[in-house]
Structure formats: C-alpha cells, structure tokens
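Structure ticket #2291
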Amino acid sequence: MPDRIDAWNLLCGWTSSEALRRHALGVEAAMKAMARKYGEDEELWGVTGLLHDFDYERYPQAPDHPLRGAPVLREAGYPDVMITAILGHAGYTGVARETLLAKALFACDELTGFLFACAYVQPDKKLASVKPESARKKLKDKSFARGVSREDILSGTQDLGLDLLEHITFVRDALTGKAEELGL
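Resolution: structure written out below.
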C-alpha cells in the first residue's frame, strides 16, 4: 500500500480547495482515533479517511463521486478493503458497509463536517469550545449546516453500536488533537 505521503500527494493533486483538504485531514484524524479505539491499523484507517473524498472536486455529482476515483486508487495500489470502504461511504453506490473500516468511515465523515460547522460558530472558532451536548442539540436544527446529512450521522453511529453523545465527544476530541493543522 502506498504510504501517507503518497496519499497526501494524491489528495493534493486532485484537490485544490483548502476546505476540502481540511475536511480530509479531519476525517483522517477521526479515523486514526477510531483505529486506536478498535485496535486496528492506524495507517490504513487514516489513509482511508484522508482519501475518501479525493475525487470530489473533479466529480462532485452522484454517482461520479466516489465511483470515478476507485479505479485511480486501484491503479495506485491501495487495498480493496480501503476502496470498498470509500465506495460505501456514499449510499447511492450500493456498496454495503460490511467491515468495521467501512462503518467507521461512514460514521466519521458527516460528523466531522458537522463539528467543523459547530466550531465555526464559536466566538473563538475553536473545536475545543464545541460542547458535545450543544452539537447534539444543533443536529435537530435543520437550518444549521444544512448540507450535512443528519440521517447519515445517526445511521453511522447506530451501525457501530455507539451512543450519539459518546461518538460526538470522541470525534470532537480526535479533531481537537489536530486543531492547529485544521485551522480550528
């Protein structure tokens, strides 16, 4: 498998948006923390999070994303378990989320974006200032971060058998560990 530097170079070659790069870094941080939690391979899980949306800027419409990126990942030598997880993070692909890796990616992706939005409305714009209880309450406000799928957040959390508040706290803490790199 290509290493993290190769993955970063692939991401940057396909993604010029700093916001999308920060999102990728955030999902990478959450996935590495999830790997530690479950005793899994941090490198594999982190790179999966880093590259899950690498093709989004070129192919933002369903069904192109992530279907158009999968062959690129295969050709670059990424493992099938990673590619399947990336394909499964988009419900419209029809790829089932059967592995723990796939379920974790789905559970972390939208929540990461949502927690970024929660940080942006804090007076200091810091992740550390996001209270998990407040974030859970904001999930009910459909006008806040309206592009974030609440259904995906709830479904992903349930698929892992986690309590929502516990998962929000866990991902917020993982992101806080990379706050400077994320600009939050």
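Closing remark: The domain at 4-182 is CATH 1.10.3210 (Hypothetical protein af1432).
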